[in-house]
Specification:
CATH architecture of the largest domain: Alpha-Beta Complex
Number of strands: 6
Structural class: alpha+beta
Distance between the termini: 61 Å
Number of domains: 2
């Protein structure tokens, strides 16, 4: 690296780490700058003459560990999106990212999914009418405004696992 690039990188690094709280003794080093709706710290950098915004954990990884391979994610062992402690971070592809999300219970499903068309009451109804009354999937789908494949997935347990787990039951 040329001297000018080295100095610019050092200034950027100093500016970045000044926005990270790592002196409190906590294991997570919390991002103190701007945070997006998902809780990830955002940091503006100049790259090839253009201003770009990057996620703080990715920048922390690159500053301490080096480049992130293409199509890879920076994931958190601590599950704290504001954490920039590189000992809490690891690299993974999209499949590992999804598996990590599911394992930590952050995968929205059922009525908690904002795009859901069915409710748990609908699922109960579908199981009764299909299993006890013998209604065909096409008729159940028409009644609920969904594709017959959705009904098939519900009845086979690929979607809306039935009977419900306690996690899926409403909390009154």
């Amino acid at each position: 690296m040329r001297y000018r690039e080295t100095q610019a990188r050092k200034r950027m690094s100093d500016r970045f780490w000044s926005k990270v709280e790592n002196s409190s003794g906590a294991s997570c080093w919390q991002w103190l700058g701007y945070v997006n709706d998902q809780g990830y710290g955002c940091f503006d950098i100049r790259w090839n003459g253009k201003r770009r915004t990057g996620h703080a954990p990715r920048i922390a990884w690159e500053l301490r560990r080096g480049p992130i391979p293409e199509a890879m994610h920076v994931l958190h062992h601590c599950d704290n999106p504001g954490c920039c402690n590189v000992s809490h971070l690891f690299i993974g592809d999209n499949a590992i990212n999804i598996a990590d999300k599911v394992a930590k219970g952050r995968q929205v499903k059922g009525e908690r999914n904002g795009n859901h068309k069915l409710t748990w009451d609908d699922i109960d109804w579908i199981h009764v009418y299909a299993n006890q009354l013998g209604w065909p999937n096409s008729l159940l789908a028409e009644c609920h405004g969904v594709d017959p494949s959705v009904i098939s997935n519900v009845l086979c347990g690929r979607r809306w696992h039935y009977p419900r787990s306690n996690d899926d039951r409403p909390q009154w």
